[in-house]
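In keeping with the milestone schedule agreed at the kick-off meeting, the structural modelling team has produced records for the first pair of proteins. Each record is given below as a sequence line and a structure-token line. The laboratory manager (R.T.) confirmed that both were archived under the project's standard naming scheme.
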Amino acid sequence: MQLNENTIQVLRNFAGINSNLVINEGNELKTIAEAKNVYATVKVPDTFSSTIGIYDLNELLKVLDLVDSPNFDTQETHAIISDGSGRSKVKYHFTDVEHLTTPTKTPKLPEEWEVKFTLDQNTIQRIRSAAGALGHKELCITPDSSGVVMLTVCESENKTSNTFSIEVPGEYEEGESFEFYLHIDNLRKIFSTTYEVNISSKLISFFQSTDQQIPIEYLIALEKNSKYGE
């Protein structure tokens, strides 16, 4: 089959989460970070006919870049990756899935989400840029007096550090206090698109893409210094 460009873009994103990848039969791809703090799942346009183990996803992506419009022909132990003309071919061997880090079960979502907000692509880029400029590693999520959600790039252990803040539309119980922290490095792992974000006091966040072309979802653990209702 000829790999869809959206599938390749998902593979590039997953490579930033974990270099290992197990592609199961069907069209749903899943991955989890080595630290178990980022989990991602998405349904791609392509359907795979068998289970594939990839040890170095970045290497596979480099192989795909060697050919135009890559065709991915799956064999029992390897794939033949060829260009549209069939003149160029790469034999790429799979890895035993038992040696790879992969999600063994689907994480259970909390029954309730205390905070919800919309995070668009432009806001994500501005947060990443601010974190780079200020040298900070945390994004603090707090309520604002006007009823919106405030996202602040900060350093929680240094209250006098410079900060960058931006408002986003959101929902939460009126009068409730919270101070949730996300590690910026984890925010760099998500695909650049628009998300509906849900946050639980159980220190987990759920990012759900609104892009129907790449309907990707992430579960990202919050930092342990997060607070709710205190």
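The second protein of the pair:
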Amino acid sequence: MIEYLTQNFNFITYGFEIIALIIGALHFRKYKNSTTKYFVYFLLYIVFVELVGACFFYTDTFFVINFLRSLGINSTVWYNVFWMIGSVLFIIYYFYSLISLTLFKVFTKITALIFLVAMIVHVYIHPNLFLTSHPSFYQLSGALATFISIALYFIQLLNSDAIIDMFRTFGFYASIGLFVWWLIITPVLFFDIYNSTSDWDYANLKRLIFLFANIFMYTCFSIGLFISKPELKND
């Protein structure tokens, strides 16, 4: 069982991502006038980025892949920039949209600005790093920015009447899924030096940790999209 999970790590993750997107698409009509619709767009973005990354790794017949290879990009690491930078900025924006307190909105803007500047500076100083490795700096910065945004959202939620209906708001499920995901995978980054073919036990353990973290997160998204009521506050 463990061998099956580690060998099919990517495909299982793709499956849960697609399920979350399908549920979001099927329930899109009830969210078309709420902030949650942007999260459905985000899920579409994730599936697209994963599709391009999968095609880059598994095939060279996709026209987008041929174009990237013609530019000299021959690594699958590059698309993590779209995931680690683009997705974190969206997450910050999503919680910014849910937050109504002016001071918290300002803090969220500052968080997004600092994160973006840090990413640009890091890429400028190490222009080829993101094409050859998985810099932990991106992931740790993304975790910190996400935690700050979620914390501000929860503080507002706890101090408002919306807490009564929080189990029927998608923002709650999105925040739980994202918070637990970052909480699980962030400590693993400190041991990434062992993630090599010389230590398959750790490599497989890391895959299992990421797999179950992904399953939990996308399951939270799917449940939230299915049962949430967009007419409620914080949606």
